[in-house]
Specification:
The chain is built from 16 helices and 14 strands. By secondary structure, it is α/β, with parallel strands linked by helices. The chain folds into two domains: 262 residues, Rossmann fold (3-Layer(aba) Sandwich); 59 residues.
Length: 436
């Protein structure tokens, strides 16, 4: 297939450039009020709701959130695997969601590739590496002849750090990091403009992760590739992303540039994610305050929340009251301290408030008398006759918060001891008088 025909496949139904935003940046991909639902009727699960964000050409946009938040669902919707229940996805200003012409569908496949999370499950175990990388070339006829195909495949396998002799092997003969390199080569050989990287390093050893990230950055620099990077590890995302979107239970709650988001994590969920970033120093990690997100802090019963820009290209989801508070914090210009390290013996404010409240609860519990805490006169009589057993009964009643019974035993036991002391004193006095 000639280069001219290959370019026709790439641009079929697509303009050469996407629309520009107010700052002159080209919008390559745009999600507008996207809803994704699985199942029907009462069994329907709304996995993504009202998700909106733009990805600019040449940038790395990271989508972060905990497991099950909808990150992969969004990524699979971009490559047209997951259908939308509402909203639309546009690529270079052209709608690519829903039913589209076959020529446009092929152009989308040609331009948008995906690197999957599990490098073992995403590769065909029965195919050689040569065929796995060449499959896209075969489907779109992106080579002039067999020699041209072999040259493209060998060049790509070398660019990802493997050797041409590896092309005759099968995926199970490689390590996890090598399999991920093969997956990257399969995507990059198509010369895409956008790559959806679905947690491409989460299944790899720590020592291999940096190599794969450097490889992806190398392709971005050399080929101008745009990335939608899906991850849950913010410690990695911070250093590879231009902008970051935070997703919680299928809803985008915050979008900002990487340093902006880490300096001003305005939404409580973003704050909790950043506070969970592990610290290499075990002593500091032990004294770190882990912030837990509680959705009940939001009151959306009357004031409905919206996803709005508060300035500085910083978007946050919240009610009007919350948005006003977020904007005031951001306009103050004082970076927020998302990670707090305690000094030895120091306690966080939240812990001190909790312990103070617990002390009040315990005090109130002591003031509430149980049903059998009557302070009966018989406890006094019993303790008067047997003072030592009376003190023992007092300790038991105190343990179970029977304060009235404990006081009765105490007063009876003390009275019994005083009575015994008087008897002993009189006996000694009479004994002295008898001797005299």
């Amino acid at each position: 297939m000639s280069q001219e025909k290959a370019n026709e496949v790439r641009t079929a139904g697509l303009p050469e450039h996407g629309p520009l935003d107010e700052n002159g940046r080209e919008i390559l991909l745009s999600l507008k009020h996207v809803d994704i639902t699985f199942g029907k009727g009462d069994n329907a699960v709304r996995a993504v709701q009202d998700a909106s964000f733009d990805i600019y050409k040449g940038e790395t946009f990271s989508l972060v959130g905990e497991s099950g938040s909808g990150k992969t669902t969004v990524g699979r919707a971009v490559i047209r695997v997951n259908p939308l229940a509402a909203g639309e996805i546009t690529y270079k200003g052209v709608r690519i969601s829903g039913k589209i012409p076959r020529s446009l569908d092929r152009a989308v496949i040609r331009n948008i590739q995906m690197v999957f999370q599990d490098p073992a499950a995403s590769l065909n175990e029965r195919a050689t590496v040569d065929y796995i990388i060449s499959e896209g070339l075969y489907n779109f006829h992106l080579f002039k002849n067999e020699a041209d195909r072999v040259k493209k495949v060998e060049t790509m396998i070398e660019e990802v750090g493997l050797l041409p002799e590896h092309l005759t092997r099968y995926p199970h003969e490689f390590s996890g990091g090598q399999r991920q390199r093969i997956g990257i080569a399969r995507a990059m050989v198509m010369e895409p403009e956008l790559v959806v990287a679905d947690e491409p390093i989460s299944a790899l050893d720590v020592s291999i992760r940096a190599q794969v990230l450097n490889l992806m950055k190398k392709f971005q620099t050399e080929k101008g590739i745009t990335y939608l990077f899906i991850a849950h590890d913010l410690s990695v995302v911070r250093f590879i992303s231009d902008r970051i979107g935070v997703i919680y239970k299928g809803r985008i709650v915050e979008v900002a540039e990487a340093e902006e988001l880490f300096n001003y994590p305005l939404h409580p969920y973003t704050h909790s994610l950043i506070s969970a970033i592990p610290i290499p120093d075990p002593e500091l990690e032990k004294n770190k305050v882990l912030y837990t997100y509680d959705p009940s802090v939001h009151d959306y019963s009357q004031d409905k929340p919206e996803f709005v820009c508060i300035g500085h290209e910083h978007y946050v989801y919240g009610s009007q009251k919350e948005i006003a508070e977020y904007k005031a914090v951001r306009d103050a210009g004082v970076p927020l301290k998302a990670i707090q390290i305690l000094r030895p013996g120091e306690q966080p404010e939240e812990r001190r408030e909790y312990e103070s409240l617990a002390a009040e609860v315990r005090e109130e519990a002591l003031l509430i008398h149980p049903a059998h805490d009557t302070g009966s006169i018989w406890y006094k009589v019993f303790s008067f006759l047997l003072p030592l057993l009376g003190f023992l009964a007092m300790a038991v009643f105190n343990h179970f918060h029977h304060t009235r019974n404990a006081k009765a035993c105490k007063s009876g036991a003390i009275g019994g001891l005083i009575f015994l002391a008087v008897i002993v004193a009189l006996f000694l006095l009479l004994l002295v008088l008898a001797v005299i």
